[in-house]
């Protein structure tokens, strides 16, 4: 029997932001990648399989024989988050158990209290202050309790050519339109952590390449781009466009009223403390595991992102 040398990963959310970039990175690392999709798709070097992450049988069938499962799927927007997130994760856990595969989960800083966590290490106590954060904690606990091989990589706010649910593409600029004024959620002087999606995907690929050399269950932090005073990220938009852009601050005071009718806006209001307090990620254990963290210079990353969003 010929020995299989190419590893295989199933990516749930391969058409989205972090899932799509992780799929690309894994392919570049000579992995065979399957993508579970609700609508037929082709291309990108991915073996697309039609199915729903809420359908356990579909997930188990798509995951047959894989070495890793990347759980990067989320409900569109923030609709039915409480009802859908845990059942979807349970299906991925079941698939990981059935194949002795490593489960990879993109994590966030929402597991922590921003007022008391200016710098967070992977093993810091988790004290969520939002509904979304509480669910994130529950997700991580479910994975750890299941006993599957797992790696969780937490990062700051995502941005990149595959926008997904990002602050940049849903608030700061408008995809498909030239950039006028840039809406800034944070205050000047308050640091904020950003994570460029292709860099996050590359970090996941390097971690999954290590296979069983990783601990059976492990969390890492991705430092990404640290905007030390809350102004450099918005400034990079101007650098990418080769012109100065005007900024204005998000009108936080009126958002609760809008949130009465808009679930996405309601969830955004909950995130306000993360823009009023600096939360930086300690990535020392990640660097020990994979070497220097993947990092695309911010201006280059922003040029690529705005071009993909149609904002030039």
From TrEMBL:
<dbReference type="InterPro" id="IPR016040">
    <property type="entry name" value="NAD(P)-bd_dom"/>
</dbReference>
<dbReference type="GO" id="GO:0005737">
    <property type="term" value="C:cytoplasm"/>
</dbReference>
<feature type="domain" description="NAD(P)-binding">
    <location>
        <begin position="13"/>
        <end position="158"/>
    </location>
</feature>
<dbReference type="InterPro" id="IPR051783">
    <property type="entry name" value="NAD(P)-dependent_oxidoreduct"/>
</dbReference>
<dbReference type="GO" id="GO:0004029">
    <property type="term" value="F:aldehyde dehydrogenase (NAD+) activity"/>
</dbReference>
<dbReference type="Pfam" id="PF13460">
    <property type="entry name" value="NAD_binding_10"/>
</dbReference>
<dbReference type="InterPro" id="IPR036291">
    <property type="entry name" value="NAD(P)-bd_dom_sf"/>
</dbReference>
<protein>
    <submittedName>
        <fullName>NAD-dependent epimerase/dehydratase family protein</fullName>
    </submittedName>
</protein>
């Amino acid at each position: 029997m010929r020995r299989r040398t190419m590893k295989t990963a199933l990516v749930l959310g391969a058409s989205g932001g972090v899932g799509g970039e992780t799929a690309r990175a894994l392919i570049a690392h000579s992995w065979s990648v399957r993508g579970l999709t609700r609508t037929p798709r082709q291309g990108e070097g991915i073996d697309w399989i039609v199915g729903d992450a809420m359908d356990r049988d579909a997930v188990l069938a798509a995951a047959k024989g894989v070495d890793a499962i990347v759980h990067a799927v989320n409900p569109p927007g923030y609709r039915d988050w409480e009802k859908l997130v845990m059942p979807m994760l349970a299906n991925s856990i079941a698939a990981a158990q059935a194949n002795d595969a490593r489960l990879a989960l993109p994590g966030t800083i929402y597991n922590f209290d921003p007022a008391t966590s200016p710098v967070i290490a992977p093993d810091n106590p988790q004290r969520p202050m939002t509904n979304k954060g509480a669910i994130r904690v529950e997700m991580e606990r479910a994975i750890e309790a299941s006993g599957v091989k797992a790696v969780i990589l937490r990062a700051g706010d995502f941005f990149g050519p595959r926008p997904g649910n990002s602050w940049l593409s849903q608030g700061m600029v408008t995809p498909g339109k030239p950039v006028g004024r840039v809406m800034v959620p944070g205050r000047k002087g308050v640091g904020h952590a950003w994570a460029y999606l292709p860099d996050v995907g590359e970090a996941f690929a390097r971690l999954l390449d290590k296979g069983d050399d990783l601990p059976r269950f492990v969390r890492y932090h991705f430092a990404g781009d640290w905007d030390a005073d809350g102004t450099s990220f918005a400034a990079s938009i101007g650098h990418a466009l080769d012109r100065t852009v005007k900024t204005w601050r998000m009108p936080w005071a009126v958002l609760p009223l809008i949130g009465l009718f808009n679930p996405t806006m309601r969830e955004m209001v909950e995130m306000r403390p993360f823009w009023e307090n600096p939360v930086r990620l300690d990535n020392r254990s990640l660097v020990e595991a994979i070497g220097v963290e993947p990092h695309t210079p911010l201006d280059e990353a922003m040029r690529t992102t705005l071009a993909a969003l149609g904002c030039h």
